[in-house]
Amino acid sequence: PAPAGLPGDPDPEEAVTDDSSRHGGRVRGFPHERGNWATHVYLPYIAQEEFLELLELLVSRARTYVPSLAAMEEFHLSLSQCVVLRYHWIEPFVRSLRERLAAFHRFFCVADQVKVYTNQNKTRTFIGLEVSAGHFQLLELVSEVDGVLEEFDLPTFYKDPSFHISLAWCVGDLSGRLEGQCLRELQDIVDGFEESAFLLRIQWEQIRCKSGNKYFSFPLR
Known about the structure:
Usb1; nucleus; U6 snRNA phosphodiesterase 1; alpha+beta; Cyclic Phosphodiesterase, Chain: A
């Protein structure tokens, strides 16, 4: 067992009240508890000006169907679910990730298919760009990340993942309003955007892990 009294790892019975109004009405997938660190492994995407122009077109059109839709401010492609780490697990977790991911090289994928998603408990709906090429390399990465998660007895990634970059979100399950005609209009915007073929062929250069307020980077070779 880990020694008691580690920094940031107080009594597990000391819970914190979560106020959803402080983060746009979003509801946590699990209750916040002191000493528990929400942890996520992902590929970061740095948006270019042209990508933000495309995003503005897509969100503007989608808001004619769901006015409460909000554009994402940061972009990524997930390689894990959001899991809970105890404070004293973070260092060995990151070390294991670094060892397993060290051999991976940079690679491209294409994310150009508009799709609507909801989270597991149906409290949020997302519009995302699904990957149409590069799936095999992403599955290889997930396999290694899953191996680390299994070491710590944590939930692995989804069995048949739809790899995607989320673009916008809203509270509640509003997928019915966004699918069908709205989705077709959004795909037409992507297909007709002058820079889309260049923008949406993405080279991944690093993997990141966020645990609470800590960030760890794993450069691809």
